[in-house]
UniProtKB/TrEMBL annotation:
One of its GO terms (molecular function) is 2 iron, 2 sulfur cluster binding. The lineage of its organism: Bacteria, Bacillati, Actinomycetota, Nitriliruptoria, Egicoccales. This is Ferric siderophore reductase C-terminal domain-containing protein. Residues 185-205 form the Ferric siderophore reductase C-terminal domain. Pfam families: FhuF_C. It comes from the Bacteria. It comes from Egicoccus halophilus. InterPro entries: FhuF_C.
C-alpha cells in the first residue's frame, strides 16, 4: 500500500486498522490505529537513518515513493522505497537533520487521518513520531556500536521544535555495576489495554518510582543474560513488541 493512499483513502485505512485489531484480538480499534501509525513511522524512519549513518547517503522521502507491506494481521512487515532521489553528505549531523525534516514532511499529511481513528490529539501523535525516531536512533546506535553518539544525535534532532514535539527523556540506570540507558516515552502507546501486554517500562502513565523499578529489573536481567556485560536498552516498550520485533521489544 502506498503511503500517500493512507492519507486520502479512509476506507483502506479503516480496513488496515480493522485487520490490525483482529490480529491483536482486541476490540480497541483506537489502540490498533496507534500501532498501525507506529508501524509505518518505524518503517519510514529506520531505513534512511541507517543509510545515513552507515553510508553517508539518505533517500529524499516522499509519501508517493514509499510502499508499505502488510501481512494478513495488519502488521507492517516491510517497506519499498522507489523513485526517490538520494542525498550524499559527509556531514552526518546535517544529513540526519535532513532525514528528520523529510520524515516530518512525509508523516505530516498522514496524521489527520489517524487523529480520529487513534483518538489522540496532534501533540500526542507527534509525540509518537518523536518516540519512534528516538527508538530508531538508539537501536541503530546499539547496532553499530555507538550508543552514546546515537543518543547525542537524538538529543540534537528532537529538541522540541514544532511540530515534532517531545524529547528523548533518557534515564541512565546502574544496577550492581551494570549500566543501561532507558527512555520514557512522550506518548503512551496504550498497548496495556490489550490483554497480552503490560505497561511499557517507560510508559509516561507510570509514576517515576514504578518506572525506575522496571528499568532496574530490565537492566539486571540484561546483565545476567550477557554474563555481566553492559547493556544499552531502549524503553520505548510495548508498542514495539506489538509491532513485531523492532528495537524496543527488550523493554516490555
Amino acid at each position: 500500500m502506498r503511503l500517500d493512499a493512507l492519507a486520502t483513502d479512509g476506507a483502506r485505512l479503516d480496513t488496515l486498522v480493522a485487520s490490525r485489531a483482529q490480529g491483536l484480538a482486541t476490540a480497541h480499534r483506537d489502540v490498533a490505529a496507534g500501532l498501525v501509525l507506529h508501524d509505518l513511522v518505524w518503517r519510514v524512519t529506520a531505513p534512511p537513518l541507517a543509510t545515513a549513518v552507515v553510508s553517508g547517503i539518505a533517500p529524499r522521502l516522499r509519501a508517493e515513493g514509499i510502499t508499505l507491506v502488510h501481512d494478513a494481521s495488519g502488521a507492517c512487515t516491510g517497506v519499498h522505497l522507489h523513485g526517490l532521489d538520494a542525498e550524499v553528505d559527509a556531514d552526518l549531523d546535517r544529513l540526519l537533520r535532513r532525514v528528520r525534516d523529510d520524515v516530518v514532511g512525509t508523516i505530516e499529511g498522514l496524521l489527520p487521518a489517524f487523529r480520529s481513528r487513534a483518538r489522540l490529539g496532534m501533540p500526542a501523535l507527534w509525540g509518537e513520531v518523536a518516540d519512534t525516531f528516538a527508538a530508531a536512533l538508539q537501536w541503530l546506535g546499539d547496532l553499530v556500536g555507538a550508543p552514546r553518539a546515537a543518543r547525542d544525535a537524538a538529543d540534537t534532532l528532537l529538541d522540541g521544535t514544532p511540530p515534532l514535539r517531545g524529547g528523548t527523556n533518557w534515564v541512565p540506570v546502574t544496577v550492581a555495576g551494570a549500566s543501561a540507558t532507558h527512555r520514557v516515552r512522550n506518548t503512551c502507546c496504550r498497548a496495556y489495554r490489550l490483554e497480552q501486554y503490560d505497561y511499557c517500562a517507560g510508559c509516561p502513565l507510570l509514576d517515576a518510582e514504578d518506572r525506575l523499578a522496571r528499568f532496574r529489573a530490565i537492566t539486571e536481567a540484561s546483565a545476567d543474560a550477557a554474563a555481566g556485560g553492559t547493556a544499552d536498552a531502549a524503553a520505548g516498550g510495548t508498542a514495539d513488541a506489538a509491532a513485531g520485533g523492532t528495537a524496543d521489544a527488550t523493554s516490555c
